[in-house]
Structures are given as structure tokens and as C-alpha cells.
Amino acid sequence: MTFAVTVDLVILTVRQDALHVLLIRRAIPPFEGTYALPGGFVLDGEDLPEAAIRELREETALSPSAAHLEQLATYGTPNRDPRGRVVTVAYLALLPDAPTPSAGSDAAEAAWLPVDSLPALAFDHATILADGVERARAKLEYSPLAAAFCPPEFTIAELRQVYEAVWSAKLDPRNFHRKATSTPGFVEPTGRSTEGDRGRPAQLFQRGPATVLHPPLLRALPSAEV
């Protein structure tokens, strides 16, 4: 049996205090006019990570170094694609607030849409997206990857807003600040502060060297309303 291989991208960012995903509206069959995850067929001689990076660059115009990119899962259910036997390898990308994307050659539109209120998606992309959101939520609990949604320097309030958006939860600001700044390797002060006309300057932080949080952050925040 022969089959085609594609890559699909679950590209997440936080915009206007809500978790958003990048979707394209398909301009060609199948599912013409329906929203879908960005992606495409793997080119001859192209490795899977190379294909994911290419699609990320084409769909967001961002350098891959500006995003966290990891393989999510493989999906190969028969008849998932009406064109034939197609296996897709999905990747999860976490981005800081990105500019408005431009649609590719096979898309009529590209847009950031809130994950809590999405239209029907093409293929099995609703399942892939749900898996990506669940992976992102777990990553934020056990790792410092929330910083992937932030600029290189950020305030603790901005970091808390990322957790609230991804977890769909309200967190106590003082408790979060205490836990975030006391968890070893989670964040590090930059020695700089915000500037502005309103309120007190806020201390700026950057992502720390930790790869795993001990204890997981959600368990350390009993005031989280989840």
C-alpha cells in the first residue's frame, strides 16, 4: 500500500487575553471554504521537521527560532482524507503574539481565531487541535514554556495572563507572583523594569533555565479556578 504524508500545524498564541489558533480557509477541494489547520504535503527529499519549519515560516512569516515547535502526534485513520490514504504528522507551535498572517496559495484566508469559539474544521483537524491544546495546557503545568507565548522580556502579570488564557482559569495575582518568582529556574529577573505614565514600573523577567517545574505549577496554585 502506498500513501501520502503531510504535516499539519497547531499554531497557538495568546491575543487579547485569549488562546488563539491560526487557521486557514481552504480555497480548493476537498472542504473548499472550510477552516483548517495550516499544513501541506511533505516534499520529495524533505525531512518531517524541515516540512514543519517550512510550513511555519510560510504561514506566519516568523523565524522558527521565534517559536517553540515540537512534534505532537501522527494521525492515519483510513478515510480521514477523501483524496486517498494520507497520514499526517502534526506539530505544535507556541508563539508570542504574532502579526496578522497572509494566506498561502491554497488558502482563501488566514486568521487567528479563539479556540473557545471555532467553526467546524476540515478533515480530522478538530481532533488534532484538541490534542494540541491539551498538550499546551500540560506543558504549562510541568514546564516553563508559558514564556514561549511572551516576548523575550515580560512582567509576571503578562505571564499570569498567559496561564489564565491557556488554562481558562482565573489565578490569584499575589499567589501567582509568589510561586512564579520562588520556583527554581522558572523565571529570572533581567534587572530592568517597564516604563510608562501609569502606575509603578513593573520588574521585567526572562525565561529561566529549568526544563521541568517542581512542583508542577498548577498544583502549587490552589486558588486556581479550573
Chain-wise SSE layout:
Blueprint lengths: L3 E12 L2 E9 L8 E2 L2 E3 L6 H13 L7 E8 L10 E9 L12 E8 L10 H18 L13 H12 L5 H10 L4 E7 L9 E5 L19
Parallel strand pairs: 1-6
Antiparallel strand pairs: 1-2, 1-4, 2-3, 2-7, 5-6, 8-9
Q: Structural class per helix/strand content?
A: alpha+beta
**Count of runs of 4 or more consecutive helical residues:** 4
β-strand percent reads 25-35%
- What is the string of helix and strand elements? EEEEHEEEHHHEE
Unreliable spans are none
Q: Give the CA-based shape.
A: elongated
User: What's the β-strand tally?
Assistant: 9
- Give Rg in angstroms: 19 Å
Average pLDDT score: 88
Q: How helix-rich are the residues, as a percent range?
A: 10-25%
**Biggest sheet: strands, sense, closure?**
7 strands, mixed
Terminal-residue CA separation: 46 Å
List keywords for this structure.
seven-stranded mixed sheet, 226 residues, 9 strands, 4 helices, alpha+beta
